[in-house]
Design goal:
This protein has 199 residues and is mainly alpha-helical. It contains six helices and four strands; from the N terminus they run H-E-H-H-H-E-H-E-E-H. The protein has one domain. Helix 1 packs across helix 3 and helix 2 crosses helix 3. It comes from Phocaeicola vulgatus str. 3975 RP4.
Length: 199
């Protein structure tokens, strides 16, 4: 039986100059370390769950507030500030209750390309123009989630529910690395003995 394809990622790339970004500096100045912690938490959830966006519902608000031991109102205030400064797209947040951004989607497309995954961004929230994207991006409808209630915006349920693409997955034949790729000693080891070298 095949494994269900995961939408999100186990890890994501972080730029080393992110602390020089004026948006991050404004967030830290306005909301101190708590602001940056909330932003990174949401960013992590975006890449972990859907890959390029997250529908930020009451449940996600509770999870975030509970994780950082903060009040939900304070978390929501920080997220709204993140949309004001442009870390997340304000229009998509207000209309759909979804957190995403241009740089998030660029990073997502790049990670999909590196992982040899199909890139799918729902067309309602796609911030990348076709002529500027160096990799193909498939368009899809936003999935309708009846159980979640958005915090901000109203989701139109008139759209067609999300369906998986009909393409069969391509099996990997080359480039798979074994779990153990070499000898890495935990302690200092006599190298000639470890590699059976006669001196």
């Amino acid at each position: 039986m095949g494994r269900i394809a995961r939408k999100g990622f186990e890890y994501y790339r972080a730029e080393t100059d992110r602390f020089r970004d004026i948006k991050i500096r404004k967030l830290r100045k306005e909301h101190s370390c708590a602001g940056y912690a909330i932003y990174q938490y949401v960013l992590n959830e975006i890449y972990r769950v859907e890959g390029c966006y997250i529908r930020f519902t009451q449940d996600e608000l509770f999870d975030c507030a509970e994780y950082w031991n903060m009040r939900e109102e304070e978390v929501l205030r920080i997220i709204n500030y993140c949309t004001e400064t442009g870390l997340f797209n304000a229009g998509i947040w207000k209309q759909y209750g979804i957190l995403t951004g241009h740089s998030i989607q660029i990073r997502y497309v790049s990670m999909c390309h590196a992982a040899k995954r199909k890139t799918v961004i729902p067309e309602e929230i796609n911030l990348l123009s076709e002529e500027k994207s160096s990799f193909p991006v498939s368009r899809a409808q936003l999935p309708v989630e009846a159980a979640s209630v958005p915090i901000c915006g109203s989701v139109a349920v008139t759209s067609v529910p999300f369906t998986e693409p009909s393409e069969a997955p391509v099996p990997l034949k080359e480039g798979i690395l074994p779990e153990k790729t070499g000898f890495i000693p935990e302690e200092s080891v006599n190298i000639p003995e470890a590699y059976n070298i006669k001196v």
